[in-house]
Design brief:
Shape of chain A: elongated
Strand content of chain B: 25-35%
Oligomer: heterodimer
Largest interface: A-B, 22 and 26 residues
Number of domains of chain A: 2
Largest sheet of chain A: 6 strands, mixed, barrel
Shape of chain B: globular
Largest sheet of chain B: 6 strands, mixed
Radius of gyration of chain B: 19 Å
Order of helices and strands of chain A: HHEEEHEEHEHEHEEEHEHEHHHHH
Number of domains of chain B: 1
Helix content of chain B: 25-40%
Number of strands of chain A: 12
CATH superfamily of chain B: P-loop containing nucleotide triphosphate hydrolases
Structural class of chain B: alpha/beta
Number of helices of chain B: 8
Order of helices and strands of chain B: EEEHEEHEHHHEHEHEEH
Distance between the termini of chain A: 28 Å
Structural class of chain A: alpha+beta
Helix content of chain A: 55-70%
Radius of gyration of chain A: 33 Å
Strand order of the largest sheet of chain A: 4-5-10-7-9-8
CATH topology of chain B: Rossmann fold
Chain lengths: ~400, ~250
């Protein structure tokens, strides 16, 4: 028996009860649509997080100053100020895997220019900071090693700060007063937009860390150190060496906790992924349940169809249909239901996630292999849930089936 | 030459609940090629069981059945289906056409299950030819609900003929039809029989049976009478008479 003839009979049978066919397909449409939309959203969120983490730079290791405990009171992170500028120099000198390094301080404060003022974050960094973060300048240049050594009063500012303080003006060469200390703007960064957490990454002023320590905050310790390793392979050994070096320098004996934290970019990415992983598994489980419900709908309607068409089955058997011909016929109908439903589900899932993207500005990304996978799964749902009704039809006795009213 | 049907000591016992029903008891029967046989009997005489057995829809409990030289008494479900497809054309009382399917496609149905592949064009040609044989070529595109009872039965006969079977097996083919249409259908059968096609027909109507050539009568699962028809009716003749009678009472003009 030819597959074309089977298909033609299947299509005719499905068109006979249009509303019933559509309602049955709806189960599959919703199920597959939910899977595709869920995966698109999850994937979009994941790629956004990945992009954010990539924007940290390449092969980056972050070293944070640790907490301390004094008289039973524990300070928060960075509370101790355990990292000294000398620690950064030591790392640069003694860890061969390190290519770039930038000591870091951070504080929020009010800045002013002319008659404008603005509260923003002040970041004290080394001259290599923008290279590590792979953050290009829109205009001007980064301050130099010389500026860092001399603690010069120069600043590189983000787009938001430039827009707020120098509306309609060129920012380069302008004076920026931080805590009433006049700095000269030497560079303006290209905008990065919002971070995953919704923070404006362009609301920032970067000055040499030496200037921040001596001229602004009167600080003697660092908040952290940003380091770039020579390659991805070098990340783990570099992390290890930095930890050992700092423990030695801070005279931490075995059995005591570190007073600092060393995190590689990979670890940060992993943590971010783990958080969204749970959510994705939960959503996928819900989508699976709706697929099963769709499958049960198909099984239900196929059982009704077999009963309704008992006489037809009898006629087909009388003129020579084998059991497997009948089995194939009903299986084809079930698979046609699930595959067409699945295809419409893919369309609605992709369309739905597009709408979410356009109107809700949620990041979505539909992976092609998932579209393919959803299609295969919907065919398998048809085979799985269509088999029992089709088998039941194939086992009918032709005499009884012909006599069925 | 082999007989079309040869039954030897065939029994059929149904095991229903506590009582065994002995529907067919020790029946032996030979039907040669080209015969036109009416199988008759009151209800419960076992003629339906005989019909199912002859049609390879059911197997005898014991005894042997050769159909066109093939021993079919020991075949399984699928083998019986193939035999039905190749050697038997069924005509039912209730026509049993697929609804919302054109006459042509109904006639093509048995070819869908032919084990050796047949080209789609040949399907069409053979189905049209079979419809022409029963005089319905111009109605090929009509659906069963657009056809009269007699026309539906002709489509069913065309469907039975399309695989060129060894015999036609008709189960009360005129049971749902009026007198004139019944005679017309018997006329179709007589014409086919004249062309050499073997026909076995189950009926309980004596006048319909007298259009055949041989009457086999069953009672209580046994054959009690097997006689050639002496004063055979001819459908063309009877139709002419009926028409004259109708004209006489001005039923038709």
């Amino acid at each position: 028996m030819k597959i074309l003839a089977i298909l033609r009979v299947a299509v005719r049978a499905l068109r006979r009860n249009k509303l019933r066919t559509i309602l049955t397909m709806l189960g599959m449409i919703i199920g597959v649509g939910a899977v595709i939309a869920t995966v698109s959203l999850g994937n979009g969120a994941k790629s956004q997080v990945e992009a954010q983490i990539a924007s940290l730079g390449q092969n980056v290791i972050l070293i944070f100053s640790g907490s301390f405990t004094r008289g039973g009171v524990r300070s928060g992170w960075n509370g101790a100020g355990t990292l000294a500028v000398e620690d950064a120099f030591a790392i640069e000198r003694e860890v061969p895997e390190i290519t770039l390094i930038s000591p870091e301080l951070r504080s929020g404060t009010l800045v002013a220019a002319g008659n404008q003022n603005w509260s923003t974050s002040i970041l004290g960094e080394g001259a290599d900071y923008l290279d590590i973060r792979m953050w290009p300048l829109a205009e001007g240049s980064m301050f130099s090693e010389q500026d860092v050594r001399s603690a010069n009063k120069v600043a590189v500012i983000g787009k938001t700060v430039a827009d707020q303080l120098y509306p309609g003006m060129k920012a380069i060469g302008q004076v920026l007063r931080i805590k009433n200390v006049p700095f000269v703007v030497v560079g303006e960064l290209i905008p990065k937009g919002l971070s995953v957490m919704g923070q404006d990454q362009d609301d920032i002023v970067i000055v040499p860390y030496t200037s921040a320590m001596k001229r602004l905050f009167g600080a003697t310790t660092l908040r952290g150190i940003t380091v770039q390793a020579s390659s991805t392979k070098a990340l783990a050994p570099a992390q290890q060496q930095i930890t050992e070096l700092l423990r030695q320098r801070h005279r931490i004996t075995p059995g005591h906790d570190d007073d600092f934290t060393v995190r590689t970019q990979e670890e940060i990415a992993e943590a971010a992924n783990n958080a969204s992983q749970t959510m994705r598994i939960l959503l996928a489980a819900i989508a699976c349940v709706s697929l099963i419900v769709g499958g049960i709908g198909i099984m239900n309607i196929m059982l009704v169809s077999v009963t309704e068409r008992t006489r037809e089955i009898g006629i087909r058997m009388a003129v020579g249909a084998h059991g497997r011909d009948i089995l194939m016929q009903f299986l084809t109908e079930a698979v046609a239901l699930s595959v067409v439903g699945g295809a419409l589900g893919i369309v609605s899932g992709v369309g739905g996630s597009r709408l979410l993207n356009v109107y809700m500005h949620w990041p979505t990304l539909t992976p092609v292999e998932w579209v393919f996978f959803a299609f295969i799964v919907s065919a398998m749902v048809g085979i799985f849930f269509g088999f029992y009704p089709a088998y039941k039809a194939s086992q009918l006795d032709p005499i009884d089936a012909l006599r069925y009213e | 030459m082999n007989p079309i049907i040869q039954l030897e000591h065939v029994h059929k016992i149904y095991h229903t609940g506590e009582v065994d029903v002995h529907a067919v008891r020790d029946v032996s029967l030979r039907i040669e090629k080209g015969e036109f046989v009416a199988l008759m009997g009151a209800s419960g005489s076992g003629k339906s069981t005989m019909m199912n057995t002859l049609g390879c829809l059911d197997r005898p409990t014991s005894g042997k059945y050769w159909l066109d030289g093939v021993d079919v008494s020991g075949l399984d479900r699928d083998e019986l289906a193939t035999i039905r497809n190749e050697k038997i054309g069924f005509v039912f009382q209730g026509f049993n056409l697929l609804s919302r399917t054109s006459a042509l496609e109904n006639v093509e149905l048995p070819m869908m299950y032919v084990r050796r592949p047949v080209k789609a064009r040949e399907h069409h040609e053979r189905a049209l030819q079979a419809l022409a044989t029963v005089g319905l070529a111009e109605r090929a595109g009509h659906h069963p609900n657009q056809l009269s009872g007699g026309q539906q039965q002709r489509v069913a006969i065309a469907r039975a003929l399309v695989n060129q079977p060894a015999m036609l097996l008709a189960d009360e083919p005129t049971g749902n039809l009026d007198t004139q249409t019944s005679i017309e259908i018997m006329g179709v059968f007589q014409k086919l029989n004249d062309q050499g096609i073997t026909i076995v027909m189950v009926t309980h109507e004596l006048d319909i049976a007298s259009y055949t050539k041989r009457n086999v009568i069953m009672r209580d699962g046994r054959i009690v009478s097997d006689l050639p028809v002496t004063d055979r009716l001819l459908a063309t003749e009877e139709l002419r008479k009926l028409r004259e009678a109708q004209e006489a009472v001005q039923l038709v003009s």
